[in-house]
UniProtKB/TrEMBL annotation:
Gene3D superfamilies (alphabetical): 1.50.10.20
Protein name from the UniProt record: Prenyltransferase
Region listing for Disordered, in residue ranges: 222-249
UniProt-listed InterPro entries: Terpenoid_cyclase/PrenylTrfase
């Protein structure tokens, strides 16, 4: 166990979801996801996760090197950097000089209104998923900005970049009318952590009504008629365009403001569906479009860890 950074734990039942997922992770995952799995489920330490994450860090304070598998190449990108912040948040290391450097990078790539684009310019021909919008002058994007601002607020980070970025998120969320599931999920990531709780609660209530009115959540996994088809949308982590979103995709934990949008039965069906998605090899499927063999292999362990964490957060036994 010393080599995994994990401490000895009681044996996992041989046919439990966790046991099967562990085999899948050791077989297929990048070092970062192996270390994350050990941290979350095998009593592993945070230091090895941080060390593995350092391989993706650049001198400008951002992250690159295909940390998000659909963006290849070494250059720093907002989505890579948001992914890195999510890892640091998961292991309780989202603070200090490291995050100060990240915020300087975020400042350097922000748009005129202080927000982040999903993908910055300067891809220089590096391989990129067809669904990734690469444009010369990328616009501000709630999908990229909302989760990052939420993570920084949740960790009580203070940096000048947050002021205008937070204002952008408030305005973007308040102006949502006709939306798509990924945009709603990004709004939830912001609202779950922003300090002004009454304002966040009021906006979350409105978004919940919007989600139900526009049928943005598949409320019964067994009925295809309930599965919404999302409009074409820019790239972000999560299910691909056209794939249904379920209640657990919006409310990753019971503490999320989005949990109130769904009944007990609706959430139970959603979690049943998520649990049943575990494949024969022990991993969960990815809902990203498969455009290259390597990216699918890299993405599935990430989806597997996220599925296990979601199930466990909602009180489901995983092993």
């Amino acid at each position: 166990m010393a080599e995994t950074g994990a401490s000895a734990l009681p044996p996992t039942p041989a046919h439990s979801p966790l046991f099967r997922a562990e085999h899948f992770v050791w077989l297929t995952a990048r070092v970062l996801e192996q270390r994350l799995f050990a941290y979350h489920f095998l009593n592993g330490a945070a230091d090895p996760v941080e060390t593995a994450l350092d391989a993706y860090r650049n001198e400008d304070g951002g992250y690159g090197h295909a940390l998000e598998p659909d963006l290849r190449g070494p250059v720093s990108q907002p989505l890579h950097t948001g992914h890195a912040l999510a890892v640091l948040d998961a292991i309780g290391r989202c603070g200090g000089q490291r995050v100060e450097r990240v915020c300087r990078y975020l400042t350097s790539v922000s748009t005129a209104d202080g927000a982040l684009p999903s993908v910055g310019p300067g891809r220089r021909g590096y391989p990129t998923a067809p669904s990734v919008p690469v444009v010369a002058d990328p616009p501000s994007d709630l999908l990229a900005t909302g989760p990052v601002v939420g993570l920084l607020h949740r960790n009580e980070v203070w940096h000048a970049w947050l002021f205008r970025a937070t204002d952008f998120c408030w305005q973007a969320v308040e102006s949502l009318e006709k939306s798509h599931p990924r945009e709603i999920a990004a709004a939830v990531a912001f609202l779950d952590a922003v300090p002004d709780r009454p304002r966040a609660q009021a906006l979350a209530d409105r978004l919940g009504r919007l989600v139900r009115a526009q049928r943005l959540a598949a409320l019964d996994a067994g009925r295809s008629a309930d599965r919404p088809v999302a409009p074409d949308q820019p790239f972000a982590s999560g299910p691909a365009p056209g794939e249904p979103h379920f209640p657990h995709d919006f409310a990753r934990t019971p503490r999320s403001l989005a949990r109130a949008w769904f009944t007990e039965d609706e959430m139970a069906r959603s979690l049943d569906f998520l649990a049943a998605q575990q494949q024969e090899d022990g991993g969960w499927p990815t809902r990203h479009p498969r455009w290259a063999p390597g990216t699918a292999l890299e993405t599935r362990p990430m989806a597997t860890i996220e599925a296990l964490r979601t199930l466990r957060a909602h009180g489901r036994h995983v092993g």
